[in-house]
Fold this protein.
Amino acid sequence: MIPIPVNAAHWHIVLVHYPMAGLMASLVVLGLATCFKDVRWQRVALAFMVATAALTAASFLTGEDAEHIVEGLPGIEDARIHEHEELAETARNIMIPFALLVIALWWLTRRHTLLPIWMSGGLMLAMLVLLVLLMNVASLGGKIHHPEIRGGEAAIQQGHVEEEDED
């Protein structure tokens, strides 16, 4: 049976993985297209990036409702939610102009014009920066409800308590 997301928190968890995967796939495809000077694959990479931006928007839009669902759960700290939300807003504010740039580049390549290497390189560098930012957003989001990735003494102690309970 395929689990179907039933609320905003579940949709948020499902959607937040796609922007990072989309950026990684786009980065690889754009890198190969640039190396092999293939405009068709450059356009595919640009289309992937536009889709990634749309999925980033969708994951951001589900965040507020997800917050309302999880903020009252035991063990959830409002500070972690706020920290995740602030960095997500920063990522969104960077993703919007990035997506507009990518749409413009996609339009420029409509006549099968290969992007200059410096432009492809700059785009790949921007994608790496955005990928690292999205990874940090995801990490902060995971720390909201996953003590095993929080690190520090509290997570270590909680791990020992759970190990003792299993015996």
Remarks:
- The chain has one domain: 8-70+78-166.
- The helical segments are 8-15, 17-35, 39-70, 78-108, 117-145, 152-166.
- Residues 43 and 107 are 9 Å apart (CA to CA).
